[in-house]
Amino acid sequence: MLRDNKGITLIALTITIIILLILAGITIGGGRESIKMTKSNKLLAELDMVQHACLERYTEYKLTGDISLLIGTEVNYAAVQGLAEELGINTLLSTNNYYRLTPSDLEKIGIQDANDTYIVNYQTGEVINETQKQITSGSGSNNNVLYKYTAVNEGYVQDGLVLHYDGVNNTGNGHSNTTTTWKDLSGNGNDGTLTGCTWGENYLDLDGVDDYVRKTGMTGTTDFTIEIVANDIEANGTNSYGSSFMINLWSSDVTDTSIHLWVDNRTSIAESNRNKPLFRILVPKLNEENYREVSGNRDLNCKGYYSISNGQSGLKYYSNGNSIGQNTDASFTNRVNINTINLDIGRWYNTSYFVKEKVYSFRIYNRALTDAEVLQNYNQDRIRFGL
Question: Distance between CA atoms of 283 and 329, rounded to whole angstroms?
Answer without folding.
Answer: 13
